[in-house]
Amino acid sequence: MVRKKDLGEEIRLAHKIQMATLPGFFPQVPGYDFYGRFWPADETGGDSFDLVSVADDTVFVLLADASGHGIGPALSALQVQSMLRVALRLGASLDEAFENINAQMVEDLPDGRFVTAFFGLLNTRSHELEYQCAGQGPVLHFHERGEIFEWQDPSCFPMGVMEHVERQQSSTLALQPGDILALISDGIYEYENEDNAMFGIERVAELIRGERHRPMQELAELIRAKAAEFGGTMPQDDDITIVLIRRQAE
Amino acid sequence: MSEFEIEKNAAGEIALIGRLDTAQAEKVQRFLAGLDAPFIIDFSRLEFISSSGLGVLLVAQKRVAKDGGVVKLVNMPGRIRDVFRYSGFDRIFDIEDPAG
User: Fold this and answer.
1) What is the pLDDT of residue B99?
2) Which residues in chain B have their CB less than 8 angstroms from residue A135's CB?
3) Using beta carbons and an 8 Å cutoff, which residues of B are at the interface with A?
4) pTM of the model as a whole
5) Which run of H or of E encompasses A183?
6) Per-residue pLDDT tens for A45-80?
7) Residue A186: enclosing H or E segment and its boundaries?
8) Residue B20: its pLDDT value, please?
9) How confident is the model at residue B12 (pLDDT cuts 50, 70, 90)?
10) Dihedral pair phi/psi, residue A198, rounded to 5°
11) d(CA A178, CA A216)
12) What's residue A60's pLDDT?
């Protein structure tokens, strides 16, 4: 039997292993600013992200959020992240990777559990991002020209829910100079205050619009700080992950 | 403390009331497991639904769908509708949006 003290040690170790799977530094690509960070609600959390160069001119981007939080969901999010990394390293297309990893998650996850995930490959030469979005909405694309926001709905339900009837085709978006892509887990949008009001998408959008000239690290930390400030005395109740990509203005 | 209740009226329609968070999800799962399809769930008094809440609805939907049945979700407030939209669950459930 594991004693309580030992269990605490085990959880701290699990936290350490989980955090070690997240990128410790971000791709250094001229003309781009990448940043990602995960703030778990518990010692371990059900979110994960990735931002890593996988080939010349190509950056892999991921935000995954497993339902619930704690050790079980942390393992599921980590499983998706690892399978995606290996699939792409082996040269699978996004569509193939999605189909096969989803099928594996359907097999492995307990009933009622699922993982929402946005993942894509950004070509930093053509500035096109090919992506799949399984229940990880909204995808916020800020267009510098016209200072407008485009909120994309997911293209599919989350991973692990059921097998796809037909292969899901990836989508593509193009980043123009000054554009920002914001992948943010629901821990920010659903951050509640004492009156049960939520921080919401509009506040996030306004922050990005107003503070977009800051480095992405500062912007991510500001979004999290403003959500906590909005929450007042309410503690962070859900995992928070923020991944920001800006194509620098020319 | 979050408060949550499940009601079933004379017509057999189920209402989820309050906050369906992780702590309440198991209670809903047990309740729905005992019901025969088809059934209608009224969301008009639901204030919050967590991912665990979505999960228990998914379990019910899958069980019912095996026999060709349907779970219909009705009267969703905007913020709950957004949760279904942004998680892609609106592609799985039969959601009846209020007219107009």
Assistant:
1) 66
2) 86-89
3) 19, 22, 29, 47-48, 50-52, 54-56, 58-59, 62, 79, 83, 85-89, 91-92
4) 0.93
5) strand A180-184
6) 789 999 999 988 999 999 999 997 778 888 999 999
7) helix A186-189
8) 95
9) confident
10) -100, 150
11) 12
12) 96
Least CB–CB distance from B88: residue in A111, A156, A238: A156
Query: For residue range A71-120, what is the model confidence (pLDDT) as tens digits?
Result: 888 899 999 999 999 999 899 999 999 999 999 999 999 999 999 999 99
Give yes or no for a contact between A116 and A134, defined as CB atoms under 8 angstroms apart: yes
Report d(CA B76, CA A162) in Å as an integer.
24
Note the pLDDT of residue B100.
Answer: 54
Average pLDDT, chain A: 93
**CB distance from A72 to chain B under 8 Å?**
no
CA distance B77 to chain A (A): 14
Query: Phi first, then psi: what are they for A205, rounded to 5°?
Result: -60, -40
Any alpha helices (H) in chain B, and if so which ranges?
22-33, 51-66, 78-86
- Between helix B22-33 and helix B51-66 the angle, nearest 10°, is 20
Judged by CB atoms closer than 8 Å, whether chains meet at B55 and A116 is answered as: no
Across residues A162-184, what is the average pLDDT? 94
Cross-chain CB nearest to A161 (options B48, B58, B83): B58
Report which of A100, A114, A124 is spatially closest to residue A179, judged by C-alpha positions: A124
User: Closest Cα partner for B96 from B17, B25, B43?
Assistant: B43
Residue B1 pLDDT: 46
Q: What is the mean pLDDT of residues A221-243?
A: 96
Q: Which residue of chain B has the CA closest to A153? A: B86
Distance set, CA A223 to CA A119, A160, A203, B76 (Å): 22, 30, 9, 29
Q: Which of B21, B49, B86, B92 to mutate to probe the A interface, most A CBs <10 Å?
A: B86
